[in-house]
Amino acid sequence: MAQAQCLETIPHALEERGLRFDRVLSAFRTSLQNQRENAFLWVPVLFSCGIGAYFSLPFEPPLLPLAIICIMVFSGLILVVHWNREGVSANPAFVWFAIVATVFSGVVCAKIRTLQVQTPIIEKKMNWASISGVIDSVEALPGKQGSRIVLSDVEIEGFQKNKTPRMIRLQIRKDENLWAGQRIKVSAQLNAPSDALYPGGYDFRRAFYFQGIGAVGFAFKAPEIIEGSASMPDLQRFRQNMAERIRKALPGPEGEIVVALTVGQKKGIEDRKVEILRDSGLAHILAISGLHVGLVAGTVFFFVRLFLALFPAMALRYPIKKIAAFLAFLAALSFMIIAGSTIPTQRAVLMISIVLLAVATDRVALSLRLLAFAALVILVLAPESLLSASFQMSFAAVTALIGTYEVTRKFWIGAYAGSGWLTRTALYFLGVCFSSLIASAATAPFSAFHFHQVALYGIFANLAAIPLLAFIIMPAGVLSFFLMPFGLEYWPLQIMGWGVELILESADATAELPGAVLQTPLWPFSAFILLVWAGLVTFLWRGTEKLVFVPSLVLLSVFLIMLNPLPDILIASEGELAAFRTDDANLFVTTKRAEKFTRENWESMMALPEGSSLGLPYESGRQDHVKAASAIETMPLCDPQACRIIVKSHRISFLRHPYAQAQECAWAEIVIGFEPIRKQDCNSRIVIDRFDQWRYGAYSLFLEVGQEPVIQKTRKENGMFRPWSIIRPSRRDRSSENAAEPQES
User: Fold this and answer.
1) Ranges of each domain in the chain
2) Per-residue model confidence (pLDDT) at position 229
């Protein structure tokens, strides 16, 4: 009887589940129909997913299979459209084919861009090289550090042409009379651009690959000028001459910041000034982006239209708004060229051009649709832009500002209409404050992920800096551009310097406030992606579902961040730098005399103050070292040959000299050596030596009591077989082929 009743309930249960599935499918279709108006906004997002998938691969995918898959997916999409001409946008098959086609388009586009760049990278360190090339750019460094130059049309003595980097970046201490366009000959030390400084970190070599730079180094002495000038870099000579005239009119830190705001050269700014601006949330003003290009175009647009409106006959006969928009576009284009035509500046000019085109055609100037179009064009032309913090932060800020304005537009229009000048002034400062708050909130996750810090009081510094930049500094800069050919740029530059001085004072006051900077440790990439999706859903998704999705994504991201472990041991890719983290959050490093840049990045990744890492003591003798093993539970015990420490019950030795290898291998579970070690002669569970650093790059080790250590390697995490990677032979291949010693690589 009971069995019969049970059997009778089965069809009802299945029917109920079927109804639930139908309801879910119906809700999904309804949700898709609601997105039809915003469908285009998701195209650059899905395209970015394809680009991100390409760059995250551990190997280089061949182009032909990717192209075949892409063609097959687009063919399926065309068939679905052909079979369902009516209501195709609500068809789930069409939606999925469109999503997959857009994602694969991003993968193929990134692959084509990589093939287009094809930057040769030197494979091993060159302690001495005779180099000749044409100076492409010269950038002054602060103090007496000389200049940083980029050479093109490079020739390296003893190098084949097809293996010679297209461009090389060199630091030159003695740089008198160096100008862009000169062909020089110089003796220098060269190395390949650096890997990521820790597994999962920023890949400097990949960034240089897409810039066309295949080697970096420094010159031993002043270069020899072979030819006085070349025709190609006349623009670079103009930019350099402009920077020198600004420095002559404005000596000091204000002049260097004005150079950064006009010519785009930031390396001459003192580190202390950069730190103050960063801690106050004003570092964005140093990077020429949409804000600066928009202010230049807006200044020209306003004054040209105002001047033409002074003549009623012209204002009534001609479309002065369109004329002003065209001249503003020319001003933005000229500013981009003077600023060096960097990718962020090109991106900004593209966006401003779309806005001015909308103004000239009497359309809505700012909308998410125009922003999506600009993002898509940039990603098609330069897919590697997706990986840069500047691209991510600028589009995050603009998306948040436009999306928020679309929601609050009626309030601002109603409050502004019919109000007096006092109310309008108050509304302006309220708008600046509100915009700074929205932009700061939108860019905070990116700042925390990329730079491991968030400026908490940036809204107050921006409240003072943005009006100065908008109404004093950039208009004076535009005036100085027009007056410079006549030698009359002095007074406009003085006005710019005064405005910059006020910004520095406000930045200094903000940075000195207690708790001005929130330092954040290393985030898992998954948590960062979840926060990005939360922001995208907030502004791009239509429907009440996002009231559930967004908080869920944010909470899950916070949960992953809280659970994310930090590495207990870090090993640099070269040199004698390694570090370990103690239970009381101190970071001990094996040397503080070298690898300063790497060490500072490790401190930042651990959310520690700059320079807070502790050096290891190397004064105890070898007998004391061996006898006092009981004292190393909390502090390292070191001598000139090795250093011992116990971290989470794991015995670790940093081996500095082969003399101590036998003793250290007998005592330690983990031996980290800065010289090659014969691993067959060492009984330790884990042995990492100089050759492993040379082959795999930087290491991260995660330790837990009673568990096997988890090891991450930079070239495993970031991909060992990519065009920007340097493939090192294995230990066996190296011994059989008699490869070069790692210290010379």
Assistant:
1) 18-117, 126-232, 244-519, 525-563, 569-744
2) 57
